[in-house]
Design brief:
There is one protein chain. About 35% of the residues lie in helices and about 25% in strands. With about 220 residues, the chain is α+β, with helices and mostly antiparallel strands. The protein has a single domain, classed as Beta-Lactamase (2-Layer Sandwich), CATH 3.30.450.410. The strands form three sheets. Strands 5-4-6-7-8 form a five-stranded antiparallel beta sheet, covered by helices on one side. Helix 1 packs across helix 7 and helix 5 packs across helix 7.
Length: about 220
């Protein structure tokens, strides 16, 4: 594992999706609201409805602020549909814990959940290239690949980010698992300037640096 490469990836992702920075700028009440939404996703496998959220102020305005800061996703009616690393939409990344299953935004987000909440998880996914099943058991930074009997990579096409769309609808759709050295190399070599492969350990270290701070209490920066 190359620490410099990991840090470079963290910086590159945070230029596209500055979750830590945006959360740090929030008042404490909104940081706590954000954390309660994340916890609800983990424990219930879906976004909370308005009547399931405890918040002293105007909830509608609070959710709009979180959405404006690209911390959560809202639909046109103002309902929560996602909060990185979770999403209501069924994607190819299912994470199972003691609470049940929940959908992750992308392969890397799936690898963040165990470390964020300090609990064992099981990731059920598939290779984007061959569609072969991928199963990973995780306990924080301990990863055990159950299947397939191939090297599995976390893969990112950085060129997928589209500033006109949310990160969830652009870059996240090209953050995937790829199984097999040949499949990984072939995919990367199609666009080596923007496509990057990470070992599972590298992917976990990288994404945990982005997501673990979201569940930790911090003082807000000047508004």
């Amino acid at each position: 594992m190359e620490p410099i490469r990991i840090e470079r990836a963290v910086q590159r992702l945070e230029r596209n999706l500055p979750l830590r920075h945006n959360q740090l700028r929030l008042p404490q009440s909104l940081r706590q609201l954000h954390q309660s939404i994340l916890r609800h996703y983990l424990e219930n496998g879906r976004a909370p409805a308005a009547d399931e959220i405890e918040f002293a102020g105007c909830l509608k305005s609070a959710l709009q602020r979180l959405a404006a800061d690209n911390i959560i996703l809202l639909d046109r009616s103002g309902l929560i549909t996602g909060a990185y690393p979770f999403v209501d939409e069924a994607r190819e990344f299912r994470v199972v814990s003691e609470f049940g299953g929940v959908n992750a935004m992308c392969a890397f987000d799936a690898l963040a959940i165990s470390s964020m909440f300090a609990l064992p998880t099981r990731i059920e996914s598939r290779c984007r290239i061959t569609a072969c099943p991928i199963v990973i058991e995780q306990d924080d930074d301990e990863l055990r690949l159950i299947e397939p009997e191939l090297t599995v990579f976390g893969a990112i096409d950085w060129n997928a980010r589209d500033s006109r769309r949310s990160c969830a609808a652009s870059l996240c759709t090209e953050m995937m698992f790829i199984a097999g050295n040949e499949s990984g190399a072939s995919w990367r070599d199609e666009a080596p300037a923007t496509r990057e492969l990470f070992s599972l350990d590298e992917a976990q270290a990288f994404i945990s640096a982005v997501f673990i701070p979201l569940m930790q209490a911090r003082s807000n920066l000047p508004q």
